[in-house]
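Sanity check record (used in CI):
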Amino acid sequence: MKYIVFDFDGTLVDSTKALVHAWNVAAKKFHFTPLRLEDVPSLLKYTIKERAAMYNFPLFKLPIIMPGIYKIYREQMALVTVKEGVRETIEHFIHEGYQVAVISSNKRTNIEAFFKQHHIEGIEEILTSSKIFGKDSMLKKFMKEQNIPTQSMLYIGDEMRDIEACHKVNVPVVALSWGYDAEPLLVAAKPTYLIKHIDDLPQIVAQHFQMN
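Expected output for HAD family hydrolase:
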């Protein structure tokens, strides 16, 4: 059985407006710098730690701040949209017999609500963690629980931290260049594959599993 595991924000959905709104509400409470929506594209070339420093965001307080941000995010779900081609791509993978899952640092309730609202079905598993740098632990746990060898899984994400997490547990990873990290950051992290359009994803997945 082959597993395709997706990231959520930036990969399957564009949640920029909702996240910026939630960020700015939290910024007032925790005294870090607000973010303008028009500034987001220019930030994609920086790492998370660099962005945090630029906006005086205390990374050590992530476990305290993130639950509140995702609660506000839930209230702004109307601002979250499906990325172009995502629905059709998921349906294709399910039709081809792949098991499709999501591993994200967003809240499970947010993801489930979005899928229900947009009639996206067939997602076998949704795993989440409030630790934005903890996806390797989630991947390891998921593979152990489902008894999945690394050659039977392919992770698909849009950030440097996705690639780094996959490297830690030897999971091959497809990096998508249209998400929340710019292409040079993704290239520097050395993904297994890098694609620039979702139409290329089915072919990459098919070729990968043919070789493995």
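The chain has a mean pLDDT of 93. If this sentence no longer matches the regenerated tokens, the check is flagged for review.
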